[in-house]
Every structure is written in C-alpha cells, then in structure tokens.
Amino acid sequence: MTTNGIEAVFLETHNWGKAAKFFQALGYELEFETDHSSGQLRNGDGPYIFIAEVPETKEPGMQLVLKATDTDALAADVAVEVVTPLAETHYGTREMTVRDPDGRLWSVQAGK
After folding, report:
1. 0.90 exceeded by the pTM?
2. What percent of the chain has pLDDT over 70?
3. For FRET with 66, which of 3, 30, 40, 95 sits at 20 to 30 Å CA-CA?
C-alpha cells in the first residue's frame, strides 16, 4: 500500500460554530459548511480539517486521514491490519481503515 502524506484531520466537536471560529482565528479559511453542523477548513496548501458536531453524550474524537494517490496500489500488505476494506463513500472518495501496531486506527483516502 502506498500513501502520500496526510490528506486531512477529522475532528469531532460538541459545538461546530465555536470549533469553526477557533480554527478561523488560527488562519484557517472555511471551504464549505454543511446543513448538519459540519464543514471543512484549510490553511494554505496543507491538509484540510473536517469538523463534525457530535452529541454531548459522545466523547469528541480525532483521526488523521492518509492520502493515497494511486488507488490501484491500495492492496493491503501483510504488515497492515485492514479493519475496514477499501470502499466508495457518499462524498466521492474511496476509503479504508487500518490499525497500526499500537492499536490506533488510520483512515486511508483515495481520490477526490
């Protein structure tokens, strides 16, 4: 499997508006906002931050998303534990989830 750096940081929050304002104060620009309390921000050419609001009963999480430039090369190596196989998403990408040796989950995203 080949990857090409970090594509995005996926953040969960209890307050979309406050989170978006926080990152805008740090120099991020809002690229788009959804109608369900989420949106995407970016600072320059770096990875984007996608923020999604979750209920107060859920602990907000964070996940790094690795970028894959060659979808044909996304064949799992024996050293990589695939948790969720490569699949099409409703937002136009192909994604899979893998687990590193210490148990952390990583998303791998291709195309967009």
Report:
1. no
2. 91
3. 30
